[in-house]
Amino acid sequence: MAVVVVTQDNFETEVLSSDKPVLVDFWASWCGPCKMLSPVVDQIAEENDAVKVCKINVDEQQELAINYKVMSIPTLIVFKDGVEADRSVGVKPKEEILAML
Q: Which among 13, 41, 53, 58 could bridge 65 via Cys, Cβ 3.0 to 4.6 Å?
């Protein structure tokens, strides 16, 4: 499944109303660690149909970053049934991210 780019406009539909667990990657284009993590997140999206993977650019979607208290990036948040189920900050190995799901 392809990565879904999420904005304020589609956040509720894509994340909160999803019938699957959702992995949300809060990132920015200038963030070195975000660039390191991005291929791992993309790979998880391609390999797992049971999970929806979304990316939120914190520079373009500051309100979402503020709402979810994202202070450092990359931040990964797992949503299940519309609520936050898990969170990690910084670059993590693929196995740790999969364990969150």
A: 58
| The pLDDT of residue 1 | 81
Residues with a catalytic annotation lie at 31, 34
- The rounded distance, in Å, linking the Cα atoms of 47 and 49 is 7
pLDDT tens digits for range 28-58: 999 999 999 999 999 999 999 999 999 999 9
For the chain, domain boundaries: 4-100
Structural tokens at position 9: 């406009």
4-100 topology per CATH? Glutaredoxin (3.40.30)
